[in-house]
């Protein structure tokens, strides 16, 4: 890639791709440098173990639940094994279901479609758009984000107390994709339980950094995405209580979701599956699901080492940023608390888009700028 293509909107030609994916990148000032990818919160790179597992599986890739051939049997086993891996990774209850989706956004939209009629939904207005926007109807309560975690718990309690009778759902993120701050998930889930409400946890930003347990946190649903978990192959998951999902109209209509289709004089009659297949119409993304499962196994086996490494990196980053004149780190809460390694900041006198472009073009540092799909929070 030449200097003239830096910042270009044109797609690099194939021979340029290795320069982007390699360990060194060109600089507009001349020469090259080792690339520092600090944009993992948006999409994390593929783990080597995930890449190797995908490469090993690809020769056996075939249809899942759709063939008697050996490759189809292998693919079916790989697909269903992934479901059990996700159950373990999220501490699912015995009767919880695991539904594979495209990503977290897809999973939350599926859950929104499955809510019983007149369900009240409570959430903070600073949520990522994937969690903020799918909910419809007059009983959606979007709470302005409080300044402390304790106030967040109290705000949810007040909102639930004011909800009309009927099903209730609290939707909350585990960790902010903007600031890395975590929310008091267990405490909010306990409040929800006292009010007869269920809790859906958007764990897209939490699951890559901390163990997430449906039973440990006492939440009802967890959603996550492979591309945040070092498995960028287009798979996500919704894990949680099966009853609402079993009773809901299938998310998509098509093959795989049906048990039987018959001809009627007025059209066709359909008997839908009642398990996770009900919401997994179409040929599944077996490769993506396999990659997601392998990534979850890798993370689950190394939590202590990962936490220590991330803590050291975060401490170094925040100390360095604090020494920059005019730099302000963004925060949702005034109180200190647990957080992931995600940090956002502004710098006096510098437009964020320009600053991120300079970091990339002149220093080989990849960061993200903008509103991070959380416009109200930013």
TrEMBL record:
It comes from Amycolatopsis rhizosphaerae. GO terms for biological process: antibiotic biosynthetic process. Residues 37-376 form the Aminotransferase class V domain. The lineage of its organism: Bacteria, Bacillati, Actinomycetota, Actinomycetes, Pseudonocardiales. Its cofactor is pyridoxal 5'-phosphate. It holds the Pfam family Aminotran_5. This is Aminotransferase class V-fold PLP-dependent enzyme. Belongs to the class-V pyridoxal-phosphate-dependent aminotransferase family. Csd subfamily. It catalyses: (sulfur carrier)-H + L-cysteine = (sulfur carrier)-SH + L-alanine. InterPro entries: Aminotrans_V_dom, Aminotrans_V_PyrdxlP_BS, PyrdxlP-dep_Trfase, PyrdxlP-dep_Trfase_major, PyrdxlP-dep_Trfase_small. Keywords: Aminotransferase, Antibiotic biosynthesis, Pyridoxal phosphate, Transferase. One of its GO terms (molecular function) is cysteine desulfurase activity.
